Amino acid sequence: MPDFQYEINDGVAVISWNTPTRNMNIMDLQSLSDLEIKIDKALSDNDVIGVIITSGKSNFSGGLDLGCISKIPGIISENYQENLFKGLKVFTNLTRKIELAGINNKDTGGKPIVCTLDGDALGVGFGIALSCHKIFVSDNPKGKIGFPDILIGMPPVAGSISRLIRKINKELCISLLQNGEYINFENAIKHGLVDEMKSSDELIPFAMQWIKSNLKKNIIKPWDMERYSSEDKIPKKFSSLEDEIKQANKKSSLKGIHPSFRAMFEDLYKNKNINFDEALWSELNWLVNILTHSTQNSMIKTLHVHKPALDKGASRPPGVECEPIKKIGILGAGMMGAGIAFVSAKVGVDVVLLDQNQEGVDRGLHSVKRMLDQGLKRSKFSAEDAKNIFERILPTVKYEDLNGCDLIIEAVFEDPKIKSLVTQSAEAEISKGVIFATNTSTLPISELAKASCNQSQYIGIHFFSPVHLMNLVEIIKGKNTGNKAVAVALDFVKQIKKTPIVVNDERYFYANRCILPYINEGIRMLDEGFEPGLIDDAAKLMGMPVGPLQLADEISIELCFKIMKATRAAMGDSYPISAADTIVEKMCSEGRMGRKNLKGFYVYDENGKRSGFWEGLSAQWSVSSNQPDITEVKCRLAMTQTLEALRALEEGVLEDIREGDVGAVLGWGFQPWSGGPFGWVDMIGTERAINICENLTEKFGPRFIAPKLLYNLDRLGEGFYIKEKNN
């Protein structure tokens, strides 16, 4: 079902925004394309006299899915700035198409386009409204307008700034654009930001009447009175503003993107009387420069600079000779073991796939065949290649078949006793110098290593699921792990064409240390009366691939419960029991284990396709009539992950912030547009990050207390990547 529905009512095309299966309307590349198709249809239909853009939901728009920035074609290439320019230009082009509405070179022939707002219009949603010829709002006292994404480091898109500075005074522009403040409908009327206020029932009829009354009238906006007769005069390509941004950073006491955004605003405001198409190009050019400037550790730097460095062995200990793995032994033929077997055999490594019985081995081989079938369907390799990959895997139940392996990876159940048993059984058959790795996501490596006869050769290699699709591998050093084990693990990860990060041993290591609080924070919100859709939609707006409730379903609510019980047992009285524990336990007692049994926070059909939230959620945890500000929800979900990343660095779990950012983006999809948690803090600035933490701590408790290193950076005027403010 498309995001925008289209119908003709008495000659007027009514385009209604109603994103399926979501609590609010969220703009991404697909919905943008859908809107453009509907606009083109209306403008090309001679029987259509005008257009109304409205919403099928109570609110008009929650804003832009920031994750779509990472999906812009060519964003990870040498020409990333030009490609980002082209990708963001589609938003500007659409709003310009709406604004001109088919007007010809003689400034005639256009169709009036009206936007009606019955509820919140945030971010790019209001940017679309600004491009329409009229904006009519309801008398909803809760309705508001704003661009709050600047508070999380993302400037407005779609030409919103250039339009806003031509409609309202500079002071209000600064309030909305730089401070991220909201304005309610009543004040928006007073300041000329919108045009008329009517009751909800009157909005559409009033809009239709206005269109019919203005068919032959001039609908050209004041800033379009003098358009260039030829587009050749308008710049169309990206142009670097490196020096301008450096100067802005030097002169300003602001941090993060805010100095350059302020310079952008001042430049656009100063030149607000220039040709509007040229102004739109200038705004877009500034936006791309800000997002890709060398002072920002954005997605571009994380994936263009830091990831290649890690791929080449930036964390590899010196002085250890590199010897490619020729034969690998994998203990456990479950989902993870089969995935490791597949990616190893795919690069030419011989594999011994061992399980406790033939039934387990057969299941593992079946999983490998399924991966091969998927690869063949997608033309990832030929039928001959698939045959060779499968034949490289030796299925077995005999430990003696491990003889001759260069590396062992244990991937059995997350049970220390079972892991200890298979470790000792395998080491009895392999050579003394062979490195032994455990694939675990939560169990302390140093404790598991006690089962090994040589702890210096014991290491953690944490693959992410599904192994054949996830690019990140987390390598964990135990207290006694030696350099050779680290080097061999890194070389193997490079050999199977994945990206490694190296961390020190601590509960949950790095990735799960950040992921689990994100899930728990979302679950806590259910107990606070939040709409489930609001929780997951807020995460999507921040650019997360999935919301915390959906993620809990994906990894299994049952697994979350097991982790909670194990952590509580390990921590004893110091374990911070929360509402999340109670809810997870209740869900499991109801038999709602997640997607794996087709029953979780979401409802699934027999094929595992989501079809909305479980109706029982509202019965178990009632939804409050007063829902929170979505910016606060976004900040809670983003900061709960970021703080764990910062604490991991402060406590020495992380040794390199590059690994923290690359691991976050590749491992669980942390806001790719921001470059990762450390990049995000640099983007919003340490002062803003501290303010968010202090506000959240006051409202929600000590889990949001900012670590000392953040205060230290702020005092020095530095960031994680920006060591000298005035460089």
What would your notes on this structure say?
Among the domains are: 4-218, 2-enoyl-CoA Hydratase, Chain A, domain 1 (Alpha-Beta Complex); 327-504, Rossmann fold (3-Layer(aba) Sandwich), CATH 3.40.50; 511-620, N-(1-d-carboxylethyl)-l-norvaline Dehydrogenase, domain 2 (Orthogonal Bundle). The chain has 727 residues and is α/β, with parallel strands linked by helices. It has an eight-stranded mixed sheet with strand order 14-13-12-15-16-17-18-19, with helices on both faces. Strands 1-2-4-6-8-11 form a six-stranded mixed sheet, with helices on both faces. Strands 7-9-10 form a three-stranded mixed sheet. The relative contact order is 0.08.
Could you name the key traits of this structure?
single chain; 727 residues; alpha/beta; 2-enoyl-CoA Hydratase, Chain A, domain 1; Rossmann fold; N-(1-d-carboxylethyl)-l-norvaline Dehydrogenase, domain 2; eight-stranded mixed β-sheet; six-stranded mixed β-sheet; 21 strands; 45% helix; 12% strand
CATH superfamily of the domain at 4-218: 2-enoyl-CoA Hydratase, Chain A, domain 1
**Structural class from helices and strands?**
alpha/beta
* Unreliable residue stretches: none
Provide the CATH top-level class of the domain at 4-218.
Alpha Beta
Coarse morphology? elongated
- Proper CATH architecture of the domain at 4-218: Alpha-Beta Complex
Helix content: 40-55%
CATH topology of the domain at 4-218: 2-enoyl-CoA Hydratase, Chain A, domain 1
Mean pLDDT, all residues: 92
The share of residues in extended strands comes to: 5-15%
- Side by side, the strands of the main sheet go 14-13-12-15-16-17-18-19
Whole-angstrom Rg: 28 Å
Q: How many beta strands in the DSSP annotation?
A: 21
Report the span from N to C terminus: 50 Å
**Major sheet: size, sense and barrel closure?**
8 strands, mixed
Number of helices: 28
